[in-house]
Amino acid sequence: MRRYETLFIVTPDSSDEDLQAVADKIKGVITGMNGKVASYDEQGKKSLAYNIKKQNRGYYVLMDYLGHAEVVAELERNMRLDDRILKYLTVKLADQVDPATVVAEEPKPRKQVDETEVAAEEPKPRKQVDEAEVAAEEPKPRKQVDETEVAAEEAKPREQVDEAEVAAEEAQSPEVQESEEEEKKEE
Description:
It contains seven helices and four strands. It has about 190 residues and is α+β, with helices and mostly antiparallel strands. The protein has a four-stranded antiparallel β-sheet, with helices on one face. The radius of gyration is 39 Å and the shape is elongated.
């Protein structure tokens, strides 16, 4: 026999009776095909990473069991047909497992959070900022610009572009010469 683990998500609006019916149906499929359920852990409602069938939350269940490949095929077929199951994923954990060595594990109870303990926990204090340290770290002064240098820079005459020189340079370029020769040939 092989050991498998299947995680499946049930619709979040399912009642306790629906969840129990899904559990009985799935366990029945496994035991009906000579498989053995090692653990059935209901993990509760959680947010989904993305919407599945227009649902943004789901009831997660993790099941560990033993069986053959046919058990997995039949189990996944039943999950596909059940509208209460949004998604499922099956992983093979081991190829050869002796059913006698696998003890049916009871799901570990989730840690219950006591609201009074949460309320009693005070938030951690933030690091205190010493105002003297902040004052000591004054911003560095910006470089001072001498206005006379700026005025002298602006007073320099800008280079004038002679349009005749630009036209002469363009006339000497090989592309312009080729295009002029083509125009002469066409005439």
